[in-house]
Amino acid sequence: MPHMKEYDYGSAIRAGFDYLLSEYPEVFVMGQGLWSPWYVGNSMTDLDKIYGTDRVIDTPVSELACTGAGVGASLAGMRPVVVHPRIDFMLYALDAIVNQAAKWSHMFGGQAHPGVTVRGIINRGGEQGAQHSQALHSWFAHIPGLRVVMPATVADARDLLIASVLCDDPVVFIDDRWLYDLKGELPAPQELDLRTQGPVVVEEGVDITLVASGYSTQLAREASEVLLEEGISCEVLDLRVIAPLDPAMVIQSVAKTGRLVAIDGGWRTCGLASEILAQVAEHVPPSLLKANCVRVTLPDAPAPTSRALERLYYSSIDDVVAAARSCVGNA
Amino acid sequence: MENERDIGSMLGDLKDPGAYQTPLEISGRDPGLLVDLLRTMMLSRMVEEHLADQRREGTIGGPVHLGIGQEAIAAGVSQFLRSSDRVFGAHRSHYHALALGTDFKALFAEILGKETGLSKGMGGSMHLWDEPRGFYGSVPIVGGTVPLAVGAALAAKLQASDAISVSYLGDGACEEGVVHESLNLARVLDAPTVFVVENNLFSSHMHISLRQPSDSTARFAVAHEIPFEVVDGNDVLAVADAAGRLIEQARSGGGPGFLEAVTYRWLGHVDWRADIDVGVARSESDLKQWRLRDPIARLRAALEAVGQWSLEEDKELERELSESIEAAWSQAMDDPWPSDEALLKHVYSSEGGA
Q1: pLDDT score recorded for residue B7
Q2: CB distance from B176 to chain A under 8 Å?
Q3: How far apart are the C-alpha atoms of A148 and A164, rounded to whole Å?
Q4: Cβ-based contacts of B353 with chain A (< 8 Å)
Q5: Is the pTM of this model over 0.90?
C-alpha cells in the first residue's frame, strides 16, 4: 500500500483548488488577497503562478461586486469560487448571496443554475475583536437555496471543496483558520456528490451524543477523549453540511444515547445548536431522553479584544467536558 | 416641499420636456429596419398598456412596473444583440425582454403566475428569465443584477467567446454602491459589459435633482474611465447608433461601455396610475410635454413623411398586434397553475426542477 503523505487542513484546501483548476477549465477563483502570501494562510499558495492570474484573480476591495460577478459567471456556465479571507467582510456581499444566488433557481423555476461557491473563512481569536472574529454559518443555513458546508477534517477540507464547486447550486463553504494546522492523511481526491453528503459519526459511543461542525467537531473529539477516561462514552457527530440539514443521524443517535450536547462556534440565540436541539425536541420521544439537552456556544456578545475576556468568550474543551458531565450526572 | 432642486446640468436640453418632439431624422436609413423598430416599440407599448388595464381591473394580482414611454432604449440596444449575449434587467424589464423577441404569451403567463410562464410561474413580473434569447434575468433589487452582468461578461472572456453582457439600470441604481464597484471591476477586468442607464429622471417618486448633485449619470463612467455616450433615449436611432458603437467595442475586446439614455416614464413607479407616487409629485405639464416626445410617434411621423408608412398600415399593425395580444392573454388565462410540488422542487436547481 503506497504511503500517504500527511497534510494539514490548509494545504488540503489548496489541494482541492489544485485539483479543480487542473481538471476543470470552467473553474476560476476570485477574491481579495489571492496573490498575497499571507491573506488566506497556506490554502492558496502559488495557485496564481501555476494557473495564471486570469483564473486566480486578486480583486479590488469590492466584496459585493466580486461575489455578484461570481453569481453572474456561474449563470453563464462557469464554476467560480469567490474567496472572502474573513467572513466579517463578506457581509458586504449579502445581496449577491442571499437575494441573488440563493433565489435564482426558485424564482426562475429551476432554469437558472447559480452554481457559485462562496468561500468564507472564519478567522478569530488573537485579540482581533468584534469585526475580525465572526462565525456566521447559522445565518447562511437559515436561507433556503444555499448549501452550507463546514469541513472539519483534512480530507473533507479538500473533497467537500471539490464537491461544492462541482455542485450546480450555490454553496457557502466555510473553513476555519483554527483548523489550518490540523494534520491528517489525504488519500486520492474524490468527486463526491454534495447532494448526498451529510452528517457522519466520527466517534461511536453509548452514553451521550456530541453534535458539532467545523472547528467545534475538533473540540468535541478532544472532549470525548477526556470523557472516555472518566468512563463516559461519547458518540461524536460531525455535521459537515449544515444546510440543507439532514437531522436523521442526530435523531437516531440521541434516541440511542438519551443525551445531547450541541457545540457550535456561533452565537447561542437562533444558532445552529438551537436547530439541533429543536430537531431532537421534535423527533426524539421524551421518554427516551435521560437529561435536558445542552448547548455549548458563544455567549450572545460581540467578540472582545482583551485576552482576559477572550478566554472567557470562546468555548474550550473543558466547557464541552463540563456540559457532558452535567448531562450524565443528571441521569 | 420642493419637487426639484437647481443642480449642475450636464444633460442640457436632453432633459427638457419640450425639446426633441419633432420627427426623427431618417434619411439614408434602411426603411425595413425602421419599420421593424417601429413594430418592436409598438408591441412593447401595447403589451404594457394591456398589462396596465389588467392590473387596474385586478386580474393581475401583483405589482407591475411599466416602461411605457421608454420603449426606444431596449429596441435600439437589442438591434445589435445575439442570443449568445447575456442581458440583465431590473424591476422594469418587460420591454427589455420583449425587444429580444421574448414570446409575450409566456410573459403574460408569468405575470399571471402560470406554469407556462417565462419563469415557470415562479417569478411574476419582476423576475423574468429567457435564456434562449439571451435574457439572463431581471430582479427588483435595485442594482442587484449589475455585478452579475459583469460576471457573465467575465465568463465570456474566460470562455474566449465574443459574447457580451448588457446591464440595464436606472438613474436611481446609480446611487447604489454596488454599481460603482461593478463599473470599477468591469474596467479593471476589461469585462465586455455595456451598462445602459435609462435615466428617466425619477427614482420612484424622487426627481434626480433631489438625489444627485448633477443630472447626468455619465459622470460615473468618466470616474471609472469607461467610454460613454449620452443620448436622447426617446430617439431610437440615436440609441441604436450609440449602442452599436459601444457593443462593437465590447465585442471586439475593448472592454466595458456606458450608455446614458435620457427618457421619461409616462406612468408612476408601479402599476397603471400616472401619479401613484404622491410623496413628491411630478409636474403634470412635464408629463404632458414628454408624451409629445413619444419615441413611437416620432419614428412613425418620420416614416410617414417619406411615404414609408401610412395611416392604413399603422391601423393594420395595431389591429394585428391587438388581436394577437388578446389571443395570447386569453390563452395565458387558461394555462395551468404551477403544481403544488413547485413550491419546494425549485429550491435547488440541481434537484431536477427544470
Answers
A1: 81
A2: no
A3: 9
A4: 105, 109-111
A5: yes
